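User: DUF2029 domain-containing protein, Gordonia hankookensis:
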Amino acid sequence: MAILDRYLHPQMSAQRIIPLVLWPITIMMIFHRSVILGVNGDRTDDFKPVYQAALQFLNRQPVYGENLNTVDPHYLYPPSGTLLMAPMAIIDPERARWLFIAISVLALIASAYLLAKLFGHSARSWVVPVVLFFFFSTETVAHTLIFTNFNSFVLLGMLAFMLLMMRRRDLWAGVPIALTIAVKPVLLPLLLLPLLNRQWRVLITAIGIPVILTVVAWPLVVDPKEFISRTLPYLNEARDYYNSSIAGNGAYFGVADWLIILLRVAFLAMAVFALWFLYRYYRRTDELLWLTTSSGVLLVTTFLVGALGQGYYSMLLFPLLMTVFLAGSTMRNWPAWLGVYGCMSFDSFYSVRWEAFGRQLEFNKVTWGWSLLMIAVFCSLLFRYLDMRRDGVTSLDDAADVGEPSPAEQSGDGGEGRGAVATVEK
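Assistant: Predicted structure for DUF2029 domain-containing protein:
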């Protein structure tokens, strides 16, 4: 019977089953999001103004003279970004857009590989198809391809920066993040991390490359001063459309100014505490968890507190989400994942029966998603801090004097909830 069972019930491990299930589904999702939805496009086209600006740059025409009072997508890249984007205007706009979508998909696949690599998994691991499946099931990736935005390259640059920084390839680590900053400075807050980690050489290339590109591009752009006088002030305005930041969302719904300021200050205070706690207790004991969680805190805070936060920026939070597989992760609680649903779900809440209610949900989901995610991370770290204070642990040295947690504590929520942290892991 045992011999017969070997033929009728062949055994297979979960590590083999997961790729068998997810690879065909993921490949079809990639095809659908890029070839079908991406090529179809939507009412919002982020690629058109970029292509037009690149074309005007190559033809020695003004780049920053468009009307910024409309709600259409505008060209907002600095002169350094204009220089880097210029080659795509060599071919016609339709094929240039298709090529941009194709390269974006390759960048996302490379990002999945780097994210798995960052967390210690190989390219053949079951983790890669899981990560890709999650990537392409989110709104942030889908709309990056549909709107044809630069975000996938920002994600790739961020992950390359983190991986090289972890490997102490400091000068090289600054290169990928520098190229993204030269086009779209959304990752600029992350330069605080090599500064805190005393990896000063990262800043040489991270700051030097955008400066050099700006110096080269400045005389080549016909109207570079217009970027300073018109585009920069516009970037600092909290517009009331396509803006999920606290200020933008508040402006759309007519929230009182004092409440907007209070909320921004509150989330900024949460970020300061979280960054301090992570730096003090995790930087030397678990550098990967420190780096990925701190980056998530910095970026979520920027999205919420800054002037402009758009939903598809959420893909830059993938490293934070991946920490759920690490002991000590702040993502091991359900409120954090409810927040992830809010800022990454492809679900639409427009309702025919309850139109006003549906619009409220749809226009608020990204803002409350980011907010809930930030609150969950903050509370997780705050509860650990309070538990440590209760047990007299105020530094890493004090942790050695505290006994091991009881079996009941060890079998609890893994140190993510109130009362679960008695020591600092070394």
